[in-house]
Amino acid sequence: MQxxxxxxxxxxxxxIPLQGAKNSALALLAGCALCSGEVRLKNCPALxxxxxxxxxxxxxxxxxxxxxxxxxxxxxxxxxCAVPEELMREMRSSIVFLGAILGxxxxxxxxxxGGCELGPRPIDMHLSAxxxxxVRISEEYGGMCCxxxxxxxxxxxxxxxxxxxxxxNIMLAAVLxxxxxxxxxxxxxxxITDLGNxxxxxxxxxxxxxxxTVVISGVDKLHGCEYSVMPDRIVAATFMxxxxxxxxxxxxxxxxxxxxxxxxxxxQQMNCSVFTYDDRIFISAKKPLCAVNTIRTMPYxxxxxxxxxxxxxxxxxxxxxxVMVENIFSNRYRHVDELxxxxxxxxxxxxxxxxxxxxxxxxxxxxxxxxxxxxxxxLAALGAQGExxxxxxxxxxxxxxxxxxxxxxxxxxxxxxKS
Length: 419
Ligand code: UD1
Hints:
Elements: E1 2-7, E2 13-17, H1 22-32, E3 38-42, H2 48-59, E4 63-67, E5 70-74, H3 85-90, H4 97-105, E6 107-110, H5 124-132, E7 136-140, E8 143-147, E9 156-158, H6 164-174, E10 180-184, H7 190-201, E11 205-207, E12 214-217, E13 225-228, H8 233-246, E14 249-253, H9 261-269, E15 273-277, E16 280-284, E17 295-296, H10 305-315, E18 321-325, H11 336-341, E19 345-349, E20 352-356, E21 361-362, E22 365-367, H12 371-382, E23 384-385, E24 387-391, H13 393-397, H14 403-409, E25 413-418
Parallel strand pairs: 2-14, 3-13, 9-10, 17-18, 21-23, 22-24
Antiparallel strand pairs: 1-24, 1-25, 3-5, 4-5, 6-8, 7-8, 10-12, 11-12, 14-16, 15-16, 18-20, 19-20
Helix pairs in contact: 1-2, 1-7, 4-6, 5-6, 6-7, 8-10, 8-12, 10-12
Uridine-diphosphate-N-acetylglucosamine binds at residues 23, 26, 93, 121-126, 161, 163-166, 187, 304-306, 328-329.
């Protein structure tokens, strides 16, 4: 089990190049299964989930290879429509292959993605949407068998909640379906816009991606293309929090500040100076941090649930009392007990966390229990007096490329311990 050893209380300073967005890359890789031509996806982060998606594509009979942040996928000979259980379990977001495989082959076999660390993650909206498009779903030996002998057809699908994964699955299933699909109350996250833009580049007919109404007119075939994955807005938020918690200054390069308004506004309320220009976000936290108004996690353009834990690390040291309300996932405060072990004063009840800023955090041995909660602990350790160990690095590695190398390059005293 690998861990990080961090000696905290060093002000971070310098420039950080931002990685491509994991969540977007995974949906785009599923989309590659729809293409009868070669796709070259650039700016794909080197992360275990991306490699798992590549393994799924290879298993489906596609030729998929990763080289230096570029994934090449040739799905012309895709000859399989089943994803083995161990691959479904390896990556929870593997469910996004459902729409892509059905769209391409009209049938699909997969097991439900494993139970999740953020609370129950049902896929009822995904399945109901596929049924509305003509798919018959039966459960066999714990797996799902999806068939659509007549081929998928377009449908009007109203989502009860703007689910990111369900919106992606419907878009993927609809691009090669017969007729028109209209999704209302669709998710508007930038990753949805990225998926829509990628599919359009491959020959799909889609309008309204990134708005609550997405209209997809089915086409006969998609071709290949070259496309660059959007920057990772959650990793950018994490580095902003690293600057804040250490009283440092970071220049994040290769970001898209337009995706980050709700996050930037929170750091400004915390007393940080934030400047954005083109693809850069500069944050300076030279003044003492102060508490913020209530933060409510919401679908985009609201404050992202994935940034809740990373931002909490900085709030733990911000003078005054801040309140967070987690509206998206029911079990997303698991990092709080570990933060408290580092001296934070945080109480949670249900969706609400009350954070009373403390003057200092103290180094401790803490354990990551999920990806963003793990990142929060790394940030708290960077801002703490003394030495910390953050265990269970495997969670953090799922979303952050070489986190210790990047942080060391801007002055952190951090090393990976492989034991
Ligand atoms: C995606 C992101 C994740 C992010 C989340 C919300 C990926 C790989 N993951 O997850 O990082 O935190 O969006 O921005 O892109 N729900 C149902 N039934 C469904 C589908 C969802 O009840 O069929 C519920 C979920 O349990 C959750 C809420 O809807 O409470 C939001 O989920 P959703 O937007 O679907 O998130 P994911 O796509 O799983």
